Amino acid sequence: MNIQTVLLAALMLTGCGTVQTVAFSDKASVDQLKAKKTYCGAVPRIYSGATYDFCMLHAERPDDVDAFNYNNASPGLVVDAAVSGVLDTLLLPYTIYKQQTDGSIVIN
Question: Which InterPro entries does this entry report, sorted A to Z (predicted)?
Answer without folding.
Answer: DUF1375
